[in-house]
Amino acid sequence: MTIREAQARGQTAARRRAFRPQATDWAVRLGAIAVVLAVWEFLAPSWNPIIIRPPSAIAVAFVELVQTGELQAALGISLRSFTAGLAIALVIGMFLGIVTGRSRIAFNALDPLVSALYSVPSVALIPLIGFVFKFQGDAPRVAAVALFCVFPILINTQQGVRNVDRGLLEVARAFNSSERRLWTDVIVPSALPFVLAGIRLAIGRGLIGMIVAEFFIGLVGLGYLIIQYGNVFRIDKMFVPVITVALLGIVSMGLVQWLEGRVAPWLRREQ
Amino acid sequence: MGSVGERIVVEGACKRYGAVTVFEDLALSVRDGETVCILGPSGCGKTTLLRAMHALIPLDDGRILIDGHSVTSPRRNVAMVFQHFGLMPWKRVRSNIAYGVELAGLDGGQARDRVAKYTEMVGLRGFEDHYPYQLSGGMQQRVGLARALAMEPDILLMDEPFGSLDAQTREILQDELLRIHALVPHTMVFITHSIEEAIAIGDRIVVLSARPGTVREIIAVDIPRPRTVDSVIKHPRFVDLRDRCWRLLRENAAA
Known about the structure:
The structure holds two protein chains of two kinds.
Chain A: H1 2-19, H2 21-43, H3 55-68, H4 70-102, H5 104-119, H6 126-132, H7 139-162, H8 166-174, H9 179-218, H10 221-231, H11 235-263
Helix pairs in contact in A: 3-11, 4-5, 4-7, 4-9, 4-10, 6-7, 7-9, 9-10, 9-11, 10-11
Chain B: E1 6-17, E2 20-31, E3 35-39, H1 46-53, E4 61-66, E5 69-70, E6 78-81, H2 93-103, H3 108-121, H4 137-149, E7 155-159, H5 167-183, E8 187-192, H6 195-201, E9 204-208, E10 215-220, H7 229-234, H8 238-254
Parallel strand pairs in B: 3-8, 3-9, 6-7, 7-8
Antiparallel strand pairs in B: 1-2, 1-4, 4-5, 9-10
């Protein structure tokens, strides 16, 4: 059948379009990083070495901190509070997002509170969190990460649930869908991309929360390494945890993107 | 009400949205096994009427009976095909087609047989594992059609199913629908704003007036089956039927 053939051809063409540019994309990305590093390396010696150190010195410091085990220990502590905080934010954010997205009463009850809390810079609440949790153990830092993460997840989930295609809701009704099947067939899958976008935003904010909490509450983890080496003007070593946090962000976002491809393969058409 | 053999009866139907009356005092009936096309200018409430037949929206006045029962919720023996296709982007073709029969509670084996049968019938074999976005509009509507057919309904409600397709694809699907109708005859209500489509598909054409919609005239299409779009257009009755529909619609537009 000719339509079928045309269809199949269109589809392989689409697949080629989706994959072929990736190699060149990556070449450009890596090339840009290499150029920045090269310029930095070349210009660094003309500045005061207390303020600017070349990438090569940072690389050496990186190896040193890995060899002493300092970096791994700090990363472990930071990662623990980050993942715990993110997990708590996911549970709370998705739950409240679904409830406020589906119920008008819940929306009206919670929206002013959420808007108010979201407008306050979360950093301003860090000292309060410290006091509430008595500056002890992981709890205040986990809470800080959760606070930073929860709003984008909540708001995106809510939007996702509210933005369900009305046409599909009608289809569900036309086929006599039960309320439970309405959720599994229509609402959850259509909210999923919003939730995942919320998680990506949350990761960025959560890393800020993690570092700020380590500055002000715990003095542990990667945040502590930054403060510690900053105080003794070891800029090369100070950069190591900074870069580690950046890598942490990149890896987590990549993970979410990979997850998106797995749980929502139909979204690939937009990329 | 309704004489023997009347499957759908619409009596004194009226629908308003605020101050706007979409249609009023609308009456028509659909006999067993026939295809009734509802033709009218945009905004005359064709789609609204079809939705009311499936209890997707309530009427403000009048009533709709299917098999003698007042319609209060979507009936099991009625299935609907949507202009916007209404496919779940996250379900593969197979699951989209299975959607209705799964909800109807058919067990796994039965559901699979149904899906296989109607996938074949609409010409989608080999595409079961595709996602809707991988299909053209015409193919997507084949999925929508198979999903409805798999319910094995006796009444099909078609809401401008080919309205958003390009001309060639539309004609191909019209032929497909005529072919399928010959294989598994349904009672069918078919909404369209295309005169040619109404003549090709319908046994009778209900021409609605502009808003507020009422029945202007009911035209019997005396072109024998089996039909194809081509055979209908070449039939000696075609031009006359088209002119009659045209005149009715044009008077409407002028008024």
